[in-house]
Known about the structure:
By secondary structure, this protein is of the alpha+beta class. The protein is built from 17 helices and 22 strands. It folds into three domains: 15-110, CATH 2.40.50.140; 147-283 and 439-565, 2-Layer Sandwich (BirA Bifunctional Protein, domain 2), CATH 3.30.930.10; 301-427, 2-Layer Sandwich (Gyrase A, domain 2), CATH 3.30.1360.30.
Amino acid sequence: MADWQRTFTCGALRHDQVGQTVTLNGWVNSRRAYNQQIFVDLRDRHGVTQVVFEADPAVSTALFETAESVGREWCLSVQGEVRRRLPGKENPDLATGAVEVVARHIEVLNRCPTPPFEVTEFPGEELAGEDVRLQYRYLDLRRPSLQKSLLLRNRLNQTIRSFLDERSFVEVETPLLGRSTPEGARDYLVPSRVHPGAWYALPQSPQLYKQLLMVAGFDRYYQIARCLRDEDLRADRQPEFTQLDIEMSFVDQDDILKMIEELAVVVFRACLGIELPTPFHRLGYDEAMLRYGSDKPDLRYGLEIVDVTDWAGNSGFKVFQEAVASGQVVRAINAKQAAGRFSNTELKPGGKLSEVVTRAGGKGLAWLKVEEGKYSGGIEKFFNAGAVDALGACLGAVPGDLLLLVADVPDRAAELLGGLRVHLAAQLGLVPADNHLFRPLWVVDFPSFMRDSEEGRWVANHHPFTAPRVEDIPRLESDTAQVKARAYDLVINGYECGGGSIRIHDPVVQERLFAVLGMPTEQAHEKFGFLLDALKMGAPPHGGIALGIDRWAMILSGTSNIRDVIAFPKNQRARDLMTGAPAPVDLRQLKELGL
RNA sequence: GGGGAUGUAGCUCAAUUGGUUAGAGCGCCGCCCUGUCACGGCGGAGGUUACGGGUUCGAGUCCCGCCAUCCUCGCCA
């Protein structure tokens, strides 16, 4: 062992080591210098230890001079004696705060220029802009909070691996270079040098491979797999992300939901020490859209949506009555005790809250403030006598409540109120940023198909390999809109954290489904022939799920920024600000590829 | 592609209606300090107000363009 190599980490020293000579390696977290004495806080990922340099000519003047010269983020090796701190000088904020190391030798392993931002974290400090931090990501990653996020993600991965290993799942790796298949997200493409003009596609998910592994008899498969989709980014979306991909044979929906619930319990226990109650709440897609206006509702707060169409049709309010007569619905949210939180200016047309609805494509927001014995707002004067009281009763209104109403076609009304619900919760502070409240639920009974908004054809809601409910198979073609899928999404606190389905294992049903999607038989065989062939060759019933590891890591570490849980993320324009990728390449490379 | 927000010192932010030499805290440099731990005290350096035009006697501030960053809609089977 070289004499500079550490004997302890910076988080390890306690009373037990007092009197020992130790060597620490780490980075200068901070330095407090006096004429005759210098304190250096040395940091590594395990913690911080205070090192004392004393101006004692008997020891070494060079030692003190070196200590005087070091700056923040220099990488040091310090050898010295562990000493109990002077009485009353312990630092209770440090795990190592009972002791300090009196330096005997120092070796500068590497210097560091003044960093572009401060790595040391102080309570309540403002972080530097994210673009600077991403440019120097290796420095940003020295920050304890980012280290904590990545360590938590590591705990998540390790917990998953041992959980699945104990249940005899087999981890199998599948190709990154695959074939582009129709539908789904935009592919990242890789040109083939050997086959000019032909392209690989990077996987959007290992979907087809895992089904083929079931045909191969692997029974219980998993993979912590990188997935790539060339779509626009969001705070919770990166172009490359990680899925825990799982597939099982000879199972039905309940087997999968139950096992994932067990996994979630184990993960939350291992990562946060929290016991999640099971079974998770289950909500049909239709009910989720009706009550929450979303297929990924956040159940940490109320603000449920109530359909008041029947009431609105007889309310006397012409706008509502005409809307109902034309087939629209009227739905409402009672924002409990929120009347005082929004001014009439914010509520009126053009106001901030009203604009939440109009900007999302709604015609407007109707509102009533509930007061003692009366109602105020823009619309109360239009109603029949007693109509407002009937509405209030319907919504359980009490003085201080704010009633918000929207009229529109059912789908848009759901969407508008769903958006309004999320906005209200944020504005009213119903979602404390840093609490440990988790409300997982399963959304089930999705429609199998949706109309494509541009072309009007049917598209698969989940993906084209999702099995319809057994009782719906006869009416695949005749009653397409009503067909429900054996698909399920796991939602936690408003994030879609996973989704899966029972797959079609009957090649005939699979071909019928392709036909419903408007894919001619020849095309289906050209694109998915390998799957259809495989299904014919003794494919077992199977199904599975994919969990978004990045989103799980976000939820566990309490961040709403996916970049906080990825070591080297891309920015919102899909650029890596550290490496500069994507970047131009040599002309010679392009020529080799025939481009 | 659409909507919104932001861009001033290395970092975080100020700068009143368009008006003097663009300020503060942190960091950095120098000096002082033997118990600090967000050390303290004194002093100092540091600015193409993202960039390019325009209006004006005068622009950080107003207008147009453009770039960058973030949030969002579309998109993400």
